[in-house]
Amino acid sequence: MAQIPRSFRLLEELEKGEKGLGNSSCSYGLKDSDDLDMKEWNGTILGPPHTVHENRIYSLTIYCPNAYPNGPPLVKFESKINLPCVDSRGVVDISRLPALHPWKRDYTLEHVLVSIWRDMASPMNKKTPQPAEGTEFPPLDLATLAQR
């Protein structure tokens, strides 16, 4: 079966994100509309109801390296959060999200954000104490991290 080229795939994801189609608990879009390579994205996750995250809005940065969608994007929380899949810099370890491991080419940015949202709502994490609302992780350049 023929694979859709990276740019076409990302254009489809951008269109879906801009139109607000899909899961209403998450949103995403390009950080800069002039980014022709479509590498840098912003994401938002609304805290799941009936959890410590309820009524919180989490901001994320998403970086789609050239290997995407064959490989996962890099995802970093800007808003501080306490989850097992998030390291001390705010970077999400995709391999710690069972729904995304192993990574499959069919997974999209929406899959990633919804998987994080589900992890936030899981019985193991829904009552985990969280940092004060409004606190953020220090800045980190995901493009540099992707080159390592």
Automatic annotation (TrEMBL):
InterPro entries: UBC, UBQ-conjugating_enzyme/RWD. Residues 124-148 are annotated as: Disordered. It holds the Pfam family UQ_con. PROSITE patterns: UBC_2. Keywords: Ubl conjugation pathway. One of its GO terms (biological process) is DNA damage tolerance. It comes from the Eukaryota. Residues 5-148 form the UBC core domain. SUPFAM superfamilies: UBC-like. Gene3D superfamilies: Ubiquitin Conjugating Enzyme. PANTHER family: UBIQUITIN-CONJUGATING ENZYME E2. This is UBC core domain-containing protein. It comes from Naganishia liquefaciens.
